[in-house]
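Trying the structure run again after the queue cleared.
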Amino acid sequence: MDWVKYGHVIASEYRKKIVMALVKGPKTPKQISEDTKLYLSHVSYIINDLVKKGVVECLTPNLRRGKVFSLSSDGKEIADLLKKLR
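Done. Tokens:
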């Protein structure tokens, strides 16, 4: 477990919501926005942040629109721990 990444995720309710939305499988930012009831602009900004931290990965980096994101292996560990703590 990378505790720095875990700390980064739990410091924000939005980051936690997005990580938990991706537990069910790969999604586009629009799908995450609909699942979490967060604005699409917030989702896009947070996803980019989580990609930089290595918690989320882009499965379709060559697409300009309709990118698909999923949890990285570190992201899956963080999500498992968040599920246990609920």
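The chain has one domain: 3-85. Worth checking whether this holds up in the mutant runs.
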